[in-house]
Write a structure and sequence with these properties.
Blueprint: H1 11-25, E1 41-46, E2 54-60, E3 69-74, H2 85-95, E4 104-105, E5 111-114, H3 116-123, H4 130-141, E6 154-160, E7 165-171, E8 179-184, H5 197-206, E9 227-229
Parallel strand pairs: 3-5, 8-9
Antiparallel strand pairs: 1-2, 2-3, 4-5, 6-7, 7-8
């Protein structure tokens, strides 16, 4: 299995995929990644020295380091494409419902489970939570690979309007004050989605050039420059 699941690819490219996933998992060091009674928090995210194309996610209950378990998750699908971080987080959450049993230890003695095959199976029917969709929507306006202040839009805040819509508060060149952009967290089938590539690509031209055609009647004191409805994207 190890050989079959070892991806091709340059080392720096694989390391970049690992770093992206690592940054996204930081939010689960205090908020549970999985579990209500058997809570699992992220204790660490590591780049394994002995395996390529893998991120090692160390989980614990937040109290006892000796109860930690490490799970190896794939960054590249056997078909050759990169696995989006959004799907990796959601798939790992599903795998942890019935996690694989550790059958090894990592270099520092943490029990280690190879979760690669389980992750690939979960990717076939991955489901997302509201937090996944909101996090992806925020990154749509403020990607983590864009230095603060160098992007077209600046994210100033957000507020969920309901369980399907988020209002993103942004400032942009040539606008007088903060704008409120309403974006949908669901797809056309009513399922929670992560990321809206069409809207993400269009935003630089929509703001400010096409704001008027998307104006919302909503009045929001946090958005003195107006509220705009992009939920149809």
């Amino acid at each position: 299995m190890a050989d079959a699941l070892s991806p091709d690819g340059d080392e720096e490219g694989l390391a970049d995929l690992h770093r992206i996933l690592m940054r996204q998992l930081l939010r689960f060091t205090s908020a549970p990644l999985s579990g209500t009674t058997d809570v699992r928090l992220v204790r660490g995210v590591l780049l394994p020295p002995e395996r390529r194309g893998i991120t090692r996610v160390v989980l614990w209950d937040g109290r006892r380091p000796e109860g930690s378990v490490a799970y190896d998750v794939p960054l590249i699908h056997p078909r050759g494409e990169n696995i989006p971080w959004t799907h990796l987080v959601a798939a790992l959450r599903q795998v942890l419902v019935h996690p694989p049993v550790p059958d090894d230890t990592d270099p520092v003695g943490i029990p280690l489970a190879d979760a690669r095959r389980h992750m690939l199976d979960a990717l076939d029917q991955v489901t997302f939570e509201l937090g996944d969709a909101l996090h992806a929507s925020v990154l749509m306006v403020h990607p983590q690979d864009v230095p603060d202040g160098s992007g077209h839009l600046r994210l100033d805040g957000f507020l969920l309007q309901d369980d399907a819509t988020a209002r993103l508060y942004v400032t942009a060149p040539d606008t007088a004050g903060t704008l409120g952009l309403d974006v949908s967290l669901h797809d056309l089938n009513g399922q929670v989605r992560v990321g809206n590539t069409a809207l993400m690509a269009a935003l630089p031209s929509l703001v400010p050039d096409e704001l008027d055609v998307n104006r919302s009647p909503a009045v929001d004191p946090y958005a003195p420059a107006g509220v705009y409805d992009f939920t149809h994207w």
